[in-house]
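[Automated response] Your request has been received and processed.

Submitted sequence:
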Amino acid sequence: MTFHGDTWRAKSGTASWAFRLAQSTAAYRLLVTRFLHECRGFAVPAIVRLATRRDGENALVVDVRDKEQYRRLAAFMDARDDVEDAEISLDLTYESAEGKEHLLHGGATAWLSPECEAHDDHRFWLVVTLHTDLYAFVSWGRNRDNTAVAKRNAPRLETFLRRLEEELGFSLAEIDAPSYQDQAYRYGFRPPGSNALE
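Generated structure:
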């Protein structure tokens, strides 16, 4: 466990939101690029790893913060019809309690998969996993009261998760946040006692 602040922590797999898209109206490449666009204000997409049926994991690894690498990603996906998974590392943009802007490298990961075998009635699955609890009002930091940081940043997460539904058409399937069940809900985190896990 690595602490990055007195009131919150960074830890792999802190909380996850899983979504499904029953009717795809876009090609896989378009869905991936639209997802990258919808991260604005919440995160900076960094490393994208593609798996293909022919070449397996890491068939393509690009840093999409570089425009040339982004174009390489688009060209690869246009040329291939066997892309199975996209793993996207996200650098989170957040504010400190004092209102200073920061970037948390690798603060979240997204996985986008077409036709997951376990759920073949749905065309696409998307899982967004946070590796920090800076959005939680009560965290597992050294000082567990994270209200000041959460108030500044929870709206960023909420806006992002809403856009996945409203702009990309995903519907929430599951929330996995065992340490935050009294705070986690479909659009991020709320103060304890304001909701049950939805």
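Summary generated for your ticket: Strands lie at 2-5, 8-21, 43-52, 56-63, 83-95, 101-114, 124-132, 171-176, 184-185, 188-189. Residues 2-189 form one domain.
If you did not submit this request, please reply to this message.
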